[in-house]
Amino acid sequence: MKKISILLCLSLLCFKIQAQNSTKNNLGTWYMYNGSHKISNKFALKTMAHFRYFEVASEFQQEIYRLGVNYSFNPKLNLTLGLSYATADLVYNEPSINLYEYRFYEDLNVKSKWGKFNANHRFRLEHRFIHKDIYNNITQSWIRYNLNVAFPLSKKWNAYAFNELFLNLDRSKRFAQNWTGAGFTYLLNSIVKFKMGYFQIKTSTNILKRLQLGIILNTNHTKKINI
């Protein structure tokens, strides 16, 4: 596991050097919190807060908050209904008016097992209410499909890879974005997990490169605490 830790540190250093030396292909970073909080046998609360930057630790791009209610049909199938709020700076390295938006979303999550690989499929429908500026408000409907495949390296470490497709249903050209990336997770204990990865965001006109640094919390409030 020491080798994996050294590899992660070297990767982060290389990415930082790349970000400093390149203006066209700046390496941005997403600092992420994701949480799942079980409140009954069937229901859980899903929480999220992301702080996203055009560079490793500067040049704000977006922050997004999400809250959802999750219902589990069985161990392999669950549904989430929720609300997101996001604000974003649309222009890199220049002053601009921040866009903000509200999103209602519905997730259908399906888990499957491929030998030693754990696969998660997420189908998301989003209804976006976007405030572009003082005069312009628009609504959009998006469909997203995310495939995340994880492989256990040890009891504590996992490697993962993912791909997510975004389609904008309100445009004649439906394709909006495609995210592809990979990384590692480290299980600190039954509640806390750390995540580090790298991915690329492909649009019709650009490819953005991003680091992911995150913490994941999973709590179970149905367990009785003996005092």
How does this structure look, described?
- By secondary structure, the chain is mainly β.
- It has a single domain, classed as Autotransporter beta-domain (Lipocalin, Beta Barrel).
- Helix content is 9%, strand content 65%.
- The chain has one helix at 2-21, and strands at residues 27-38, 43-53, 60-74, 77-88, 99-114, 117-131, 137-152, 157-168, 175-187, 192-202, 207-220.
- It has an eleven-stranded mixed β-barrel.
- A hairpin with a 6-residue loop joins strand 2 and strand 3.
Biggest sheet record: 11 strands, mixed, barrel
CATH fold-level assignment: Lipocalin
| Run of helices and strands | HEEEEEEEEEEE
The number of domains is: 1
Flag low-confidence runs: 14-24
CATH superfamily: Autotransporter beta-domain
Structural class: mainly beta
Roughly what fraction of the amino acids lie in strands? over 45%
CATH architecture: Beta Barrel
Helix share of residues?
Answer: under 10%
The CATH class assignment is Mainly Beta
Strand order, largest beta sheet: 1-2-3-4-5-6-7-8-9-10-11
DSSP strand tally: 11
Structure annotation, total helices:
1
Between the first and last Cα atoms, what is the distance in angstroms?
Answer: 37 Å
| Integer-rounded radius of gyration | 19 Å
Question: Could you report the average pLDDT, rounded to the nearest whole number?
Answer: 88
Overall shape: it is: globular
